[in-house]
Amino acid sequence: MALKGNLRDFSITQLLNLVNVARKSGTLIVERLPEKIYISFREGKLSYARDGMDGAGLTMVLYKAKKLSAAQVRAINERAGQMSDKELGLLLINSNYLTQQEILASLQAYYLNMLNRLFTWNEGLFHFENEVLPPKDKITVRISLENLIIEGTRKMREWEQLQDEIPSLDMALKFSERPGVNLRNLNLSVDEWKVISFINPKNAIHQIAKASNKNDLEIRRIVYSFIQAGLVELVRPEGAPLPPIQTRIAPPPGDKTEQKSLIIRIISRIRSL
Amino acid sequence: MQTVKMVVTGPFNAGKTEFIRSVSEIEVVSTERKISSVSERVKDQTTVAMDFGRISIDENLVLYLFGTPGQRRFDFMWEILSEGMLGFIVMVDSARPETFREARNILETFRAYAPTPYVVAANKQDHEDAWDIEDMRIALRLSPAIKLLPCVAKDKEAVKKVLLELLYSILEEMETSEVGSTLDRHVD
Fold this sequence. Notes:
The structure holds two protein chains of two kinds.
Chain A: E1 4-6, H1 12-21, E2 26-32, E3 35-42, E4 45-51, H2 58-64, H3 70-80, H4 85-94, H5 100-119, E5 125-129, H6 146-154, H7 159-165, E6 172-175, H8 190-198, H9 205-211, H10 216-228, E7 232-235, H11 244-249, H12 256-272
Antiparallel strand pairs in A: 1-5, 2-3, 2-5, 3-4, 6-7
Helix pairs in contact in A: 1-6, 6-10, 7-10, 9-10
Chain B: E1 2-9, H1 16-23, E2 29-34, E3 45-58, E4 61-67, H2 76-82, E5 87-93, H3 100-113, E6 118-123, H4 133-139, E7 148-150, H5 156-176
Protein backbone atom coordinates (compact mmCIF):
# COMPACT_ATOMS: atom_id res chain seq x y z
CA MET A 1 0.00 0.00 0.00
CA ALA A 2 1.20 3.46 -0.80
CA LEU A 3 2.10 6.00 1.80
CA LYS A 4 2.92 8.94 -0.34
CA GLY A 5 1.94 12.51 -0.95
CA ASN A 6 3.23 16.05 -0.79
CA LEU A 7 4.39 17.94 2.32
CA ARG A 8 2.22 20.79 1.07
CA ASP A 9 -0.84 18.71 1.95
CA PHE A 10 0.48 16.47 4.71
CA SER A 11 3.10 18.08 6.92
CA ILE A 12 6.25 16.50 8.27
CA THR A 13 4.86 16.66 11.82
CA GLN A 14 1.77 14.74 10.69
CA LEU A 15 4.02 12.17 9.02
CA LEU A 16 6.17 11.78 12.13
CA ASN A 17 3.02 11.40 14.19
CA LEU A 18 1.88 8.62 11.88
CA VAL A 19 5.26 6.84 12.06
CA ASN A 20 5.31 7.25 15.83
CA VAL A 21 1.79 6.04 16.53
CA ALA A 22 1.95 3.14 14.06
CA ARG A 23 5.48 2.25 15.26
CA LYS A 24 6.58 2.00 11.67
CA SER A 25 9.87 0.62 10.43
CA GLY A 26 11.22 1.71 7.07
CA THR A 27 12.50 4.79 5.32
CA LEU A 28 10.77 8.06 4.55
CA ILE A 29 12.13 9.57 1.36
CA VAL A 30 11.40 13.24 0.78
CA GLU A 31 12.36 14.95 -2.45
CA ARG A 32 12.46 18.62 -3.29
CA LEU A 33 14.70 18.87 -6.28
CA PRO A 34 17.65 18.96 -6.22
CA GLU A 35 17.54 17.74 -2.62
CA LYS A 36 16.54 14.29 -1.43
CA ILE A 37 16.51 13.25 2.21
CA TYR A 38 16.19 9.73 3.59
CA ILE A 39 14.97 9.30 7.17
CA SER A 40 14.90 5.76 8.55
CA PHE A 41 12.80 4.57 11.45
CA ARG A 42 12.73 1.43 13.52
CA GLU A 43 9.53 0.68 15.43
CA GLY A 44 8.51 4.31 15.33
CA LYS A 45 11.85 5.73 16.43
CA LEU A 46 14.34 7.68 14.34
CA SER A 47 17.28 5.40 13.60
CA TYR A 48 19.23 6.90 10.70
CA ALA A 49 19.20 9.77 8.21
CA ARG A 50 21.11 10.84 5.17
CA ASP A 51 20.82 13.07 2.16
CA GLY A 52 21.71 12.16 -1.39
CA MET A 53 22.57 8.61 -2.30
CA ASP A 54 25.30 7.74 0.19
CA GLY A 55 25.27 10.21 3.05
CA ALA A 56 28.28 11.26 5.04
CA GLY A 57 30.59 8.62 6.48
CA LEU A 58 31.37 8.48 10.19
CA THR A 59 34.67 10.36 9.83
CA MET A 60 32.90 13.29 8.16
CA VAL A 61 30.16 13.33 10.80
CA LEU A 62 32.77 13.39 13.58
CA TYR A 63 34.77 16.07 11.79
CA LYS A 64 31.67 18.28 11.46
CA ALA A 65 30.96 17.69 15.14
CA LYS A 66 34.53 18.86 15.86
CA LYS A 67 35.45 15.51 17.39
CA LEU A 68 38.17 14.90 14.84
CA SER A 69 40.63 17.33 13.29
CA ALA A 70 41.26 17.56 9.55
CA ALA A 71 44.64 15.86 10.06
CA GLN A 72 42.99 13.00 11.96
CA VAL A 73 40.42 12.57 9.20
CA ARG A 74 43.19 12.34 6.63
CA ALA A 75 45.10 9.82 8.71
CA ILE A 76 42.02 7.68 9.26
CA ASN A 77 41.10 7.75 5.59
CA GLU A 78 44.64 6.65 4.66
CA ARG A 79 44.81 3.80 7.16
CA ALA A 80 41.20 2.72 7.40
CA GLY A 81 39.62 3.92 4.18
CA GLN A 82 37.83 0.63 3.52
CA MET A 83 36.44 0.19 7.01
CA SER A 84 32.72 0.30 7.61
CA ASP A 85 31.36 2.90 10.02
CA LYS A 86 30.80 0.25 12.66
CA GLU A 87 34.34 -1.06 12.38
CA LEU A 88 35.73 2.45 12.44
CA GLY A 89 33.65 3.34 15.49
CA LEU A 90 35.00 0.34 17.36
CA LEU A 91 38.56 1.23 16.34
CA LEU A 92 38.16 4.80 17.61
CA ILE A 93 36.72 3.59 20.92
CA ASN A 94 39.33 0.86 21.44
CA SER A 95 42.17 3.23 20.67
CA ASN A 96 40.72 5.77 23.15
CA TYR A 97 40.23 8.44 20.50
CA LEU A 98 36.60 8.87 21.41
CA THR A 99 34.02 7.35 23.73
CA GLN A 100 30.94 5.49 22.54
CA GLN A 101 28.79 8.31 23.92
CA GLU A 102 30.67 10.93 21.91
CA ILE A 103 30.22 8.97 18.69
CA LEU A 104 26.51 8.34 19.29
CA ALA A 105 25.89 11.96 20.31
CA SER A 106 27.57 13.19 17.11
CA LEU A 107 25.51 10.84 14.96
CA GLN A 108 22.29 11.80 16.74
CA ALA A 109 23.00 15.48 16.13
CA TYR A 110 23.74 14.77 12.46
CA TYR A 111 20.55 12.75 11.96
CA LEU A 112 18.45 15.32 13.82
CA ASN A 113 19.89 18.11 11.74
CA MET A 114 18.83 16.20 8.63
CA LEU A 115 15.30 15.80 9.96
CA ASN A 116 15.11 19.41 11.08
CA ARG A 117 15.76 20.51 7.51
CA LEU A 118 12.47 18.92 6.57
CA PHE A 119 10.60 21.15 9.01
CA THR A 120 11.52 24.10 6.84
CA TRP A 121 10.15 22.51 3.67
CA ASN A 122 6.67 23.67 2.80
CA GLU A 123 6.45 21.20 -0.01
CA GLY A 124 8.20 18.14 -1.34
CA LEU A 125 7.12 14.74 -2.60
CA PHE A 126 7.36 12.01 -0.01
CA HIS A 127 6.92 8.28 0.10
CA PHE A 128 7.50 5.71 2.79
CA GLU A 129 9.27 2.45 1.96
CA ASN A 130 8.69 -0.31 4.49
CA GLU A 131 11.41 -2.47 3.00
CA VAL A 132 14.18 0.14 2.89
CA LEU A 133 16.24 -0.07 6.07
CA PRO A 134 19.55 1.63 6.92
CA PRO A 135 22.66 0.04 5.37
CA LYS A 136 23.99 -2.70 7.68
CA ASP A 137 27.43 -1.10 8.03
CA LYS A 138 25.97 2.17 9.34
CA ILE A 139 25.56 2.99 13.02
CA THR A 140 21.94 3.49 13.98
CA VAL A 141 20.40 5.24 16.97
CA ARG A 142 16.99 5.22 18.67
CA ILE A 143 15.44 8.65 19.11
CA SER A 144 11.84 9.02 20.27
CA LEU A 145 9.74 11.17 17.99
CA GLU A 146 7.44 12.88 20.52
CA ASN A 147 9.92 15.61 21.39
CA LEU A 148 10.85 16.10 17.74
CA ILE A 149 7.20 16.51 16.83
CA ILE A 150 6.65 19.06 19.57
CA GLU A 151 9.82 20.92 18.62
CA GLY A 152 8.90 20.81 14.94
CA THR A 153 5.42 22.06 15.65
CA ARG A 154 6.84 24.96 17.61
CA LYS A 155 8.38 26.07 14.36
CA MET A 156 5.09 26.08 12.57
CA ARG A 157 3.43 29.44 12.43
CA GLU A 158 0.51 28.83 10.13
CA TRP A 159 -2.39 30.32 11.95
CA GLU A 160 -4.85 29.12 9.33
CA GLN A 161 -3.73 25.55 9.71
CA LEU A 162 -4.06 25.79 13.47
CA GLN A 163 -7.58 27.05 13.06
CA ASP A 164 -8.35 24.17 10.73
CA GLU A 165 -6.99 21.64 13.16
CA ILE A 166 -8.70 23.12 16.22
CA PRO A 167 -11.78 24.85 14.83
CA SER A 168 -13.36 25.47 18.22
CA LEU A 169 -11.89 26.37 21.59
CA ASP A 170 -15.10 25.10 23.19
CA MET A 171 -13.75 21.57 22.87
CA ALA A 172 -11.98 19.92 25.80
CA LEU A 173 -8.93 17.67 25.94
CA LYS A 174 -8.20 14.29 27.38
CA PHE A 175 -5.00 12.32 27.55
CA SER A 176 -4.67 9.67 24.83
CA GLU A 177 -4.84 6.09 25.94
CA ARG A 178 -1.36 5.17 24.84
CA PRO A 179 0.59 3.07 27.28
CA GLY A 180 4.34 3.63 27.26
CA VAL A 181 4.32 7.39 26.86
CA ASN A 182 5.86 8.91 29.94
CA LEU A 183 5.28 12.63 30.37
CA ARG A 184 8.45 12.88 32.45
CA ASN A 185 10.53 12.02 29.39
CA LEU A 186 9.19 14.96 27.39
CA ASN A 187 11.04 18.23 27.11
CA LEU A 188 8.16 20.59 27.69
CA SER A 189 8.44 24.30 28.32
CA VAL A 190 7.04 25.86 31.49
CA ASP A 191 4.03 27.11 29.51
CA GLU A 192 3.37 23.66 28.06
CA TRP A 193 3.54 22.08 31.52
CA LYS A 194 1.09 24.68 32.73
CA VAL A 195 -1.36 23.70 29.99
CA ILE A 196 -0.79 19.98 30.65
CA SER A 197 -1.78 20.51 34.28
CA PHE A 198 -5.23 21.74 33.22
CA ILE A 199 -6.00 18.94 30.76
CA ASN A 200 -9.24 17.36 31.83
CA PRO A 201 -12.41 16.52 29.86
CA LYS A 202 -14.24 19.01 32.09
CA ASN A 203 -12.13 21.98 30.97
CA ALA A 204 -12.81 23.61 27.61
CA ILE A 205 -9.71 24.82 25.77
CA HIS A 206 -10.72 28.47 26.14
CA GLN A 207 -10.90 27.92 29.92
CA ILE A 208 -7.42 26.41 29.89
CA ALA A 209 -6.23 29.40 27.85
CA LYS A 210 -7.65 31.79 30.40
CA ALA A 211 -6.23 29.90 33.36
CA SER A 212 -2.79 29.71 31.78
CA ASN A 213 -2.91 33.27 30.47
CA LYS A 214 -2.60 32.35 26.78
CA ASN A 215 -4.14 34.01 23.77
CA ASP A 216 -5.98 32.00 21.08
CA LEU A 217 -2.92 31.56 18.90
CA GLU A 218 -0.68 30.48 21.77
CA ILE A 219 -3.12 27.93 23.16
CA ARG A 220 -3.82 26.53 19.69
CA ARG A 221 -0.10 26.08 19.07
CA ILE A 222 0.42 24.24 22.32
CA VAL A 223 -2.68 22.06 21.98
CA TYR A 224 -1.86 21.27 18.36
CA SER A 225 1.64 20.14 19.28
CA PHE A 226 0.20 17.86 21.98
CA ILE A 227 -2.31 16.40 19.50
CA GLN A 228 0.37 15.83 16.90
CA ALA A 229 2.61 14.15 19.47
CA GLY A 230 -0.29 11.82 20.23
CA LEU A 231 -0.49 13.00 23.86
CA VAL A 232 -4.05 14.31 23.89
CA GLU A 233 -7.33 14.06 21.99
CA LEU A 234 -10.08 16.59 21.45
CA VAL A 235 -13.34 15.73 23.19
CA ARG A 236 -16.63 17.46 23.85
CA PRO A 237 -16.50 18.93 27.39
CA GLU A 238 -18.18 16.81 30.03
CA GLY A 239 -21.55 18.21 30.97
CA ALA A 240 -21.54 20.63 28.05
CA PRO A 241 -24.97 21.10 26.48
CA LEU A 242 -25.33 19.42 23.11
CA PRO A 243 -25.56 21.73 20.11
CA PRO A 244 -28.98 23.41 20.04
CA ILE A 245 -29.64 22.08 16.56
CA GLN A 246 -29.81 18.57 17.99
CA THR A 247 -32.99 19.29 19.91
CA ARG A 248 -34.51 20.65 16.73
CA ILE A 249 -33.71 17.73 14.47
CA ALA A 250 -34.26 14.88 16.90
CA PRO A 251 -37.69 13.47 16.26
CA PRO A 252 -39.91 12.40 19.16
CA PRO A 253 -38.95 9.10 20.80
CA GLY A 254 -40.54 6.05 19.28
CA ASP A 255 -40.97 2.51 20.44
CA LYS A 256 -37.53 0.99 20.81
CA THR A 257 -38.51 -2.55 19.83
CA GLU A 258 -40.23 -1.25 16.72
CA GLN A 259 -37.16 0.78 15.77
CA LYS A 260 -34.86 -2.21 16.23
CA SER A 261 -37.17 -4.27 14.07
CA LEU A 262 -37.02 -1.55 11.42
CA ILE A 263 -33.21 -1.60 11.39
CA ILE A 264 -33.19 -5.39 11.17
CA ARG A 265 -35.53 -5.18 8.16
CA ILE A 266 -33.16 -2.76 6.46
CA ILE A 267 -30.17 -5.01 7.22
CA SER A 268 -31.95 -7.98 5.76
CA ARG A 269 -32.83 -6.06 2.60
CA ILE A 270 -29.34 -4.67 2.08
CA ARG A 271 -27.88 -8.15 2.44
CA SER A 272 -30.17 -9.39 -0.32
CA LEU A 273 -29.32 -6.62 -2.78
CA MET B 1 -45.27 4.52 3.88
CA GLN B 2 -42.44 4.98 6.32
CA THR B 3 -39.16 6.45 5.13
CA VAL B 4 -35.74 6.63 6.74
CA LYS B 5 -32.56 8.22 5.47
CA MET B 6 -28.82 7.97 5.64
CA VAL B 7 -26.39 10.65 4.57
CA VAL B 8 -23.23 10.08 2.55
CA THR B 9 -20.79 12.90 3.02
CA GLY B 10 -17.11 13.63 2.45
CA PRO B 11 -14.75 15.97 0.63
CA PHE B 12 -14.94 16.92 -3.02
CA ASN B 13 -14.36 13.96 -5.37
CA ALA B 14 -14.40 11.37 -2.58
CA GLY B 15 -16.84 9.16 -4.49
CA LYS B 16 -20.17 9.93 -2.82
CA THR B 17 -22.27 9.96 -6.01
CA GLU B 18 -20.70 6.72 -7.22
CA PHE B 19 -21.36 5.13 -3.83
CA ILE B 20 -25.08 5.89 -3.94
CA ARG B 21 -25.32 4.92 -7.60
CA SER B 22 -23.97 1.43 -6.80
CA VAL B 23 -26.92 0.43 -4.61
CA SER B 24 -29.78 2.73 -5.57
CA GLU B 25 -32.70 1.05 -7.29
CA ILE B 26 -33.52 4.24 -9.13
CA GLU B 27 -31.23 6.26 -11.35
CA VAL B 28 -29.57 8.59 -8.85
CA VAL B 29 -31.21 11.97 -8.87
CA SER B 30 -28.11 14.06 -9.13
CA THR B 31 -27.58 17.78 -9.19
CA GLU B 32 -24.22 17.77 -10.87
CA ARG B 33 -22.89 20.81 -12.66
CA LYS B 34 -19.79 21.49 -14.68
CA ILE B 35 -16.93 22.66 -12.50
CA SER B 36 -15.95 26.27 -12.93
CA SER B 37 -12.96 26.42 -10.59
CA VAL B 38 -9.66 25.46 -12.22
CA SER B 39 -8.26 24.24 -8.90
CA GLU B 40 -11.11 21.78 -8.46
CA ARG B 41 -11.02 20.43 -11.98
CA VAL B 42 -10.04 16.94 -10.86
CA LYS B 43 -13.25 15.77 -12.49
CA ASP B 44 -15.67 17.30 -14.96
CA GLN B 45 -18.74 17.63 -12.78
CA THR B 46 -19.58 17.97 -9.10
CA THR B 47 -22.67 17.73 -6.93
CA VAL B 48 -24.02 21.17 -6.04
CA ALA B 49 -27.17 20.45 -4.01
CA MET B 50 -27.44 16.75 -3.24
CA ASP B 51 -27.57 13.26 -4.68
CA PHE B 52 -30.59 11.19 -4.01
CA GLY B 53 -30.87 7.39 -4.16
CA ARG B 54 -33.53 4.98 -2.97
CA ILE B 55 -33.73 1.41 -1.70
CA SER B 56 -37.17 -0.10 -1.09
CA ILE B 57 -36.95 -2.20 2.05
CA ASP B 58 -40.42 -3.68 1.85
CA GLU B 59 -43.85 -2.44 0.88
CA ASN B 60 -44.04 -0.21 3.95
CA LEU B 61 -40.52 1.09 4.27
CA VAL B 62 -38.08 2.99 2.04
CA LEU B 63 -34.47 3.93 2.72
CA TYR B 64 -33.24 7.13 1.10
CA LEU B 65 -29.56 7.83 0.60
CA PHE B 66 -28.60 11.49 0.41
CA GLY B 67 -25.20 12.55 -0.86
CA THR B 68 -23.97 15.93 0.25
CA PRO B 69 -22.26 18.40 -2.07
CA GLY B 70 -18.51 17.99 -1.86
CA GLN B 71 -17.46 21.58 -2.28
CA ARG B 72 -17.33 23.67 0.87
CA ARG B 73 -19.23 26.58 -0.63
CA PHE B 74 -22.36 24.40 -0.67
CA ASP B 75 -22.07 23.39 2.98
CA PHE B 76 -25.27 25.24 3.91
CA MET B 77 -26.96 22.09 2.55
CA TRP B 78 -25.32 19.82 5.11
CA GLU B 79 -27.41 20.90 8.05
CA ILE B 80 -30.63 20.47 6.08
CA LEU B 81 -29.62 17.03 4.84
CA SER B 82 -28.56 15.84 8.29
CA GLU B 83 -31.98 16.39 9.83
CA GLY B 84 -33.50 13.14 11.01
CA MET B 85 -30.84 10.87 9.55
CA LEU B 86 -30.34 7.36 10.92
CA GLY B 87 -26.61 7.68 10.58
CA PHE B 88 -23.99 8.93 8.17
CA ILE B 89 -21.06 7.72 6.12
CA VAL B 90 -17.96 9.83 5.62
CA MET B 91 -16.28 9.00 2.32
CA VAL B 92 -12.56 9.65 2.07
CA ASP B 93 -10.42 9.35 -1.05
CA SER B 94 -7.63 7.00 0.11
CA ALA B 95 -5.29 8.25 -2.57
CA ARG B 96 -5.56 11.98 -1.81
CA PRO B 97 -4.03 12.73 1.61
CA GLU B 98 -4.54 16.43 0.97
CA THR B 99 -8.28 15.83 1.59
CA PHE B 100 -7.87 14.04 4.94
CA ARG B 101 -8.03 17.20 7.02
CA GLU B 102 -11.16 18.32 5.18
CA ALA B 103 -12.71 14.88 5.78
CA ARG B 104 -11.95 15.20 9.46
CA ASN B 105 -13.58 18.62 9.59
CA ILE B 106 -16.68 17.38 7.78
CA LEU B 107 -16.94 14.47 10.20
CA GLU B 108 -16.76 16.84 13.19
CA THR B 109 -19.37 19.12 11.62
CA PHE B 110 -21.82 16.29 11.10
CA ARG B 111 -21.24 14.97 14.59
CA ALA B 112 -22.16 18.40 15.88
CA TYR B 113 -25.32 18.45 13.76
CA ALA B 114 -26.54 15.11 15.08
CA PRO B 115 -24.84 12.60 17.39
CA THR B 116 -25.97 9.63 15.31
CA PRO B 117 -23.78 6.61 14.52
CA TYR B 118 -21.39 6.90 11.60
CA VAL B 119 -18.70 5.00 9.76
CA VAL B 120 -15.80 6.19 7.64
CA ALA B 121 -15.33 4.61 4.20
CA ALA B 122 -11.79 4.65 2.81
CA ASN B 123 -12.74 4.83 -0.85
CA LYS B 124 -10.62 4.09 -3.93
CA GLN B 125 -8.72 1.33 -2.17
CA ASP B 126 -8.15 -0.18 -5.62
CA HIS B 127 -6.07 2.88 -6.58
CA GLU B 128 -2.33 2.28 -6.70
CA ASP B 129 -1.70 5.37 -4.57
CA ALA B 130 -4.26 4.39 -1.91
CA TRP B 131 -3.04 4.69 1.66
CA ASP B 132 -3.15 1.72 3.97
CA ILE B 133 -6.25 1.63 6.20
CA GLU B 134 -4.33 1.79 9.46
CA ASP B 135 -2.20 4.69 8.21
CA MET B 136 -5.41 6.49 7.29
CA ARG B 137 -6.83 5.87 10.74
CA ILE B 138 -3.87 7.66 12.29
CA ALA B 139 -3.87 10.46 9.73
CA LEU B 140 -7.60 11.00 10.23
CA ARG B 141 -7.17 10.71 14.00
CA LEU B 142 -9.89 8.09 14.30
CA SER B 143 -10.01 6.10 17.51
CA PRO B 144 -10.01 2.31 17.19
CA ALA B 145 -13.70 2.31 18.16
CA ILE B 146 -14.67 4.10 14.95
CA LYS B 147 -15.25 1.85 11.97
CA LEU B 148 -12.92 2.70 9.09
CA LEU B 149 -13.85 0.44 6.21
CA PRO B 150 -12.03 -0.23 2.93
CA CYS B 151 -14.27 0.65 0.01
CA VAL B 152 -14.45 0.83 -3.75
CA ALA B 153 -17.59 2.85 -4.45
CA LYS B 154 -18.23 1.32 -7.85
CA ASP B 155 -18.22 -2.17 -6.29
CA LYS B 156 -21.74 -2.96 -5.07
CA GLU B 157 -20.58 -5.57 -2.55
CA ALA B 158 -18.12 -3.14 -0.96
CA VAL B 159 -20.85 -0.49 -0.72
CA LYS B 160 -23.26 -3.00 0.83
CA LYS B 161 -20.65 -3.86 3.45
CA VAL B 162 -20.26 -0.20 4.41
CA LEU B 163 -24.03 0.25 4.69
CA LEU B 164 -24.36 -2.91 6.75
CA GLU B 165 -21.58 -1.86 9.12
CA LEU B 166 -23.36 1.43 9.69
CA LEU B 167 -26.62 -0.40 10.36
CA TYR B 168 -24.88 -2.73 12.83
CA SER B 169 -23.51 0.35 14.61
CA ILE B 170 -27.00 1.84 14.77
CA LEU B 171 -28.34 -1.41 16.19
CA GLU B 172 -25.54 -1.61 18.75
CA GLU B 173 -26.18 1.96 19.83
CA MET B 174 -29.89 1.22 20.24
CA GLU B 175 -29.07 -1.71 22.42
CA THR B 176 -26.67 0.24 24.62
CA SER B 177 -28.55 3.50 24.98
CA GLU B 178 -31.79 5.26 24.47
CA VAL B 179 -30.55 6.87 21.27
CA GLY B 180 -32.91 4.66 19.31
CA SER B 181 -35.25 7.59 19.23
CA THR B 182 -33.37 9.20 16.37
CA LEU B 183 -35.42 7.32 13.77
CA ASP B 184 -37.29 9.64 11.52
CA ARG B 185 -40.87 8.90 10.61
CA HIS B 186 -42.65 10.21 7.61
CA VAL B 187 -46.00 9.19 6.33
CA ASP B 188 -46.52 9.56 2.63
